Amino acid sequence: MLKGRAFxxxxxxxxxxxxxxxxxHLRSNLPELAKHVLEDVTxxxxxxxxxxxxxVAGANLGLGSSREHAAVVIKMAGVSAVLAKSAARIFFRNAxxxxxxxxxxxxxxxxxxxxxxxxxxxxxxxxxxxxxxxxLGKFPNVMLWILEEGGLIPYIKKHGGFxxxxxxxx
Amino acid sequence: MGKTLAEKILSEKSETDAHAGDIVIAKVDLAFVxxxxxxxxxxxxxxxxxxxxxxxxxxxxxxxxxxxxxSRELANxxxxxxxxxxxxxxxxxxxxxxxxxxxxxxxxxxxGEVIIGADSHTVxxxxxxxxxxxxGSTDVAIAIALGxxxxxxxxxxxxxxxxxxxxxxYAKDLALHLIGKIGADGATYKSLxxxxxxxxxxxxxxxxxxxNMAVEAGAKVGLFPADETTHRYLESCGRxxxxxxxxxxxxxxxxxxxxxxxxxxxxxxxxxxxxDNIALAKELSGQKMAQVFIGTCTxxxxxDLAVAAQILKGRKRHPETRLLVAPASxxxxxxxxNAGYIQTFLEAGATVLPPGCGPCVGVHQGVxxxxxxxxxxxNRNFRGRMGNPGAFIYLASPATAAAxxxxxxxxxxxxxx
Lengths: 170, 417
Prior knowledge:
The complex is a heterodimer. Chain A is an alpha/beta fold. Chain A is built from 8 helices and 7 strands. In chain A, 31% of the residues lie in helices and 17% in strands. Chain B is of the alpha/beta class. Chain B has 2 domains: 257 residues, Aconitase, domain 3 (2-Layer Sandwich); 147 residues, Aconitase, domain 3 (2-Layer Sandwich). Helix content of chain B is 32%, strand content 18%. Chain B has a 5-stranded parallel sheet, with helices on both faces. In chain B, helix 2 crosses helix 5 and helix 11 crosses helix 13. The longest helix of chain B is centred in the N-terminal third of the chain and has 17 residues. Chain B is globular and about 55 Å long. The termini of chain B are far apart. Chains A and B meet through helix 4, helix 5 and helix 7 of A and helix 2, helix 3, helix 5 and strand 7 of B.
């Protein structure tokens, strides 16, 4: 069970919003890059976000560039999971690969600052502040397995490769 | 039931009977990274304990985004890529060779292949009938090590383009029109499969522009069937032997069919800060531009430079509008010199940049000032994209860009043709 506060963002938050091109030179210095995450959208985000909090976005989260650094620095800022109405495919895949859950649900019912409880096992989000319970979209199994291992690298270290068929049977 | 082109390629490469919605493990024919995504990919590769490169000759490291390096940090990132290439025997396209997607088209991509690049515009090679898609650093790192990746077989949209382009209207205008019509997430996770009279008649260069922008509608791939035009292109690149005709079956199952008659299109512009925020160029006249940029993986090819040069010939850029031109590759630059286009650009007052991504990514070579507007032939106009969240980016064809550089404001190119 994950618990934390919601930081609300709008639709179409691009990877340029999350990790702007002017910080391109910091991509091999992730702790420095993480200090600037989302600063063009919510300038005080990094100073207010606490470990375990949630990034809550609208539609088409993470559109644009393939830069995986975007998902990495959201996680480094302390965010435990990202909730969005929909997500762009590369961002979605990157987030799972680095062990950051992206949960698809109707985020219109969540307000900035609401206390949320996310139960990954039962696929539900509860907005403790307003009492709303929101069902979560389902992951393809392969993403669930990768996420359960904490990301693609730990998954590959454990399995030595993709073992989707044998896992599917198991 | 027949197969879409996406289903066909992924069936072959996974040795399964793949249909939309299936998860497959596919052989990767070509994997690449660039200087913005490569260092992380190589660190992840090291962390994975897979000390192996499955097929070094088909792994390419490109130095194109911050090239030549504008800073110490990025110069050090470049060293990481060069060292890896030397150690593992992979291909390296160093500073000055050009944009990864253009070089993939010129030297590496072939019909029917699966191509994975750590860059969202990897979709460009879909124009050659390759299942080419962008992924992040970790996915590409694992593909480099194992020579395979997992993919969800996408549902497909059939994009039927009929008619013929009017003077001054190009594939870029069609791409912007299509994205405006379906939205920046209108095709998320889907395969866009282009067909119809106008698609068949399109040059390879125009097809690259359309495939390149498929991702701006959220698509996973933007595919053209490999036909005689593809064959001739590969022949011109010295790879005629790697051509094979491949296309969707006639009875393939599409989730949606979108029909566009290109005869009715006009020069189109995407306004800040979203690619689907389109208008006609003529509706934006009077909109002043501090900078015009012609280049990128979308529109930095020879045909693009030819169109721009034709309009700029004997004319000058507006004194208050900077004009930047970056050929997409060294071969494009060389051919543009031979054709006299570069001389035309210089005489028009342009700054000619080295082959590469130029100012598109906001790293260098034309970062915008506060409140400045730029008309670019690139594919993205998100806030902050060109290095300054206080600036405004408009997207258009090379023709509209050239005409706007002369007038100093957004201009319908047909006025100058």
